[in-house]
What does this fold into?
Amino acid sequence: MDNKQILSNISTRLGIEALNPMQQAIATSDRRRIILLSPTGSGKTLAFSITVLRHIAPPCGHIQAVIMAPSRELVIQIAGVIRQIATGYKVTALYGGHSMSDEVSSLSVCPDIVVATPGRLLDHLRRGQVDLRRVAILVLDEYDKSLELGFIDEMRRIIKRITGPSTVVLTSATPIDTMPDFIPLKGAKVYDYSGSASSPRSRLDIIAVNSPERDKLDTLVKLLRTIPDGKVIVFANHRESAERIHARLVDAGLPAGLYHGGLDQQRREIAVDMLNNGSTPILVSTDLGSRGLDVDSVSAVVHYHLPPSPESWTHRNGRTARVDATGTVYVILSGGEQCPPYITFDSEMTPDGHSASPIHTNVGTLYINAGKKEKISRGDVAGYATRALGIEAPEVGRIVVRDHYSLVALPLDSFTAIQAMHPAPKIKGVRVKISRIF
It folds into this structure.
């Protein structure tokens, strides 16, 4: 694709009018071997996506580009970005927890670009469902995390099947001491933005929150009732803690969702979608949510527990102050807790539970049990909401269409009438089931 078309798609479909300095440097580089070091939240996905599209050939019936990422959440995010700007190219996402039959069906028409977790891609390779011999572009995103999660053997086996890629990009939030010899990066140029002035720390306000009790739940509730309205992610160190925190917030009447590795893929996807559409502007998460979540405009991050490592601290905070935005980080501290040296504060506070503009929601999420595989589009869902459910067009919120279900944000006061519809109206002539998600 030519640069003019790529930039036009970025502007019209992503709403980004100008690239930041890091993205500009990568987007205009003529180097075919690139190592990009840049903090979480700095816009690496868009940077390497532009590189992929600059060097990809017209669609030709075989896989041209492979992008590997260490988590399903990151794979979904990357595929979502590329699909919006890769005009005329088929993009397929492969990851664990996704229906294998749906993936096999998607691969029946060969994609141009594959975005995948290493384990899932290797599974398809072993089954003979993908052919990587003619792949020309290879991207390894968040390579440091892939090493941390032990994907080294899977990646070695996959890259061995890719013979002589012309373009290789490796990204990492932190410098890498030793580069494995199976990655073809000889002569690579390093673009190091890991310590740039535009890094997220310069755009973060980090606040110590005093908790008078060792159990911080009451302090957290007060904090969430004190801070300004916006999207907030609360991080805990364990699944059980996240469950307990979420239950307390819901009991307190706060609009909160839950995200951790013990939930199935659909519940995790819905939790993120409801954060994005404003139904639950508070998300309680383990560190699983510190990388790869595709969430717009998170205004604050709360550390209910101190992060277990400097990397965890960095990646949690990277959920806010993304690209050029600012954000606030709150660290709840009970008596006797000692902060590690990598945490520095700009101020401290004791929340009083009062806010001039408290966190709230005026929308709910409607679930429809039909999606892409049932030939449902976002336009179909919008039309269904307005014509069949009687919602005014300006009141129809964010719409998400997954493989076998769809979500749409609607005004809270519309659900009483909607739930009284038995049976639910048809969509595209097919009877569907609808329900509100709580």
Remarks:
- The domain at 200-349 is CATH 3.40.50.300 (Rossmann fold).
- The chain has a mean pLDDT of 92.
- The chain has three domains: 3-192, 200-349, 363-437.
